[in-house]
Amino acid sequence: MADEKVLPFIEHLVELRKRLIVSIIAIVIGMGVSWNFSSDLLSFVEKPLTGKTYLTELKKQVYGEVKKRYPAIYNHYKLEQDVSAPVKERMLNYSAPLEPFFIQCKISIIAGLILVLPVLFYQVWLFVAPGLTRKEKKLVVPFVTVSTISFCVGALFFLIVIWPVIINFSLSYEAQGLQSWFNLSAYINFCLRLILIFGLIFELPILSLLLSRFGIVSYSLLARNRKYALLASSIIAAFHADLITMFVIMVPLYLMYEVSVWVALIFGKKKPAVTAEA
């Protein structure tokens, strides 16, 4: 009897090892491909250091409206100096001999991982497929497609919208006698970690869809635990030292939880109607 319980467990471990090996090989191949444009990715991540982002153009438009409508306020707070401030040339710095090489490796690994996301999600599907019904197994293409798109949207949302906000907020502390001097490893590690966090945050609705379809969670369960989700979002965000980063992690994380609640309501497994006995 004990052997009968152990054998399925060993089979699951063997299957898990197989999926992990395929995933690692895929990531290595993706890393090799992304190595060729890792320098371009580094340049893109460095762009907010110039201070010239979409926030700069937005500030110019807002200040322009203030100048036209409220010239007294515009002149009193000397907004002209803020708008016409010259763009500073800032560069990342490194102190270890092989530091740029290892950073290029890290960028290539993350970029390669994103590049082969369809393969990774397909391996996840194959691992859980034995527990699915024949009808549910046909959803492999939608699952892989939506999961990949969701992760990429989360990563791009961070890089295009959130990352410039974080860097601009940090640069706003520059003053006479206080100059930014960003370290290459600290800067890139911080960015890559948040890319993965935002990609996973945007996967929450997909996870909610799967769990609700399997009947593991339900709309009522998720809805009545909103306060705990808000608390959990705050705790996860609290692992980041500065307030602005905590905020930009907590808000999307909780919003994705709200989306997950409605996904469970719309696509969740419906309970069979209870018929009254005659």
Automatic annotation (TrEMBL):
It is a multi-pass membrane protein. Its main location: membrane. One of its GO terms (cellular component) is TAT protein transport complex. Keywords: Cell inner membrane, Cell membrane, Membrane, Protein transport, Translocation, Transmembrane, Transmembrane helix, Transport. Signal peptide: none annotated. The keyword S-adenosyl-L-methionine does not apply. It comes from the Bacteria. One of its GO terms (molecular function) is proton motive force dependent protein transmembrane transporter activity. Part of the twin-arginine translocation (Tat) system that transports large folded proteins containing a characteristic twin-arginine motif in their signal peptide across membranes. PANTHER family: SEC-INDEPENDENT PROTEIN TRANSLOCASE PROTEIN TATC, SEC-INDEPENDENT PROTEIN TRANSLOCASE PROTEIN TATC, CHLOROPLASTIC-RELATED. Forms a complex with TatA. This is Sec-independent protein translocase protein TatC. It comes from Geotalea uraniireducens (strain Rf4) (Geobacter uraniireducens).
